[in-house]
TrEMBL record:
Organism: Flavobacterium buctense
Annotated protein name in UniProt: Elongation factor P
Domain of life assignment: Bacteria
Residue ranges occupied by any Translation elongation factor P/YeiP central domain in the UniProt entry: 67-122
Family from the record: Belongs to the elongation factor P family.
Keyword line: Cytoplasm, Elongation factor, Protein biosynthesis
């Protein structure tokens, strides 16, 4: 059993007869009344996100998880296939379990959290950023903006990302996997 002081991003807990992963949390100490923790939880079975408030000192049921490296092999419809980098065992996960499935490139190594009680995969943690090649971008016209403007661009995985006007087809860009936003152009 853990308490609200142990809450952190990525923690898996049992709540309302389901397993949830904490996406965001905020400890709040109002001037009047008891402290509480405001959380945003994602269900690991159906992918739904819910907001919940725990009072300070509330006991939470933590799920013991083990983290292993898996390499993304390929996608088949809504099914994504991964291979354990140590044992070469393959698993198939549903698209709704993944945080950013449209940014997954074949060969990318991700961290999969596995429930130690049931040996079932719970969630997939993407790398903080990923480098992808731009496959389509409208040409940017110089001088038509006053401040930093963006345009939509398609990357090799099929995802659409807003990029600065100077990005062209064939450029490699670094994308933040948490927000799906452009970070920088990568020179080779």
């Amino acid at each position: 059993m853990a308490s609200t002081s142990d809450i952190r991003n990525g923690l898996c807990i049992k709540f309302n007869h389901d397993i949830y992963k904490i996406i965001e949390f905020l400890h709040v100490k109002p001037g009047k009344g008891p402290a509480f923790v405001r959380t945003k939880l994602r269900s690991l079975t159906n992918g739904k996100v819910l907001d919940n408030t725990f009072s300070a000192g509330h006991k939470i049921d933590e799920v013991r998880v083990e983290t292993q490296n898996f390499q993304f092999l390929y996608a088949e419809g809504d099914q994504f296939h991964f291979m354990n980098t140590e044992s070469y065992e393959q698993i198939t996960l549903d698209k709704k379990v993944l945080d950013a499935p449209d940014l997954l490139k074949e060969g990318t190594v991700v961290m999969v959290q596995i429930n130690t009680e049931t040996d079932l995969p719970l969630s997939v943690d993407m790398p903080a950023s990923i480098v992808l090649e731009v496959t389509y971008a409208e040409p940017g016209v110089k001088g038509n903006t006053a401040t930093n403007a963006t345009k939509p661009a398609k990357v090799e995985t099929g995802a659409s990302v807003n990029v600065p006007l100077f990005i062209n087809e064939g450029d490699k860009i670094k994308i933040d996997t948490a927000t799906g936003s452009y970070m920088e152009r990568v020179k080779e």
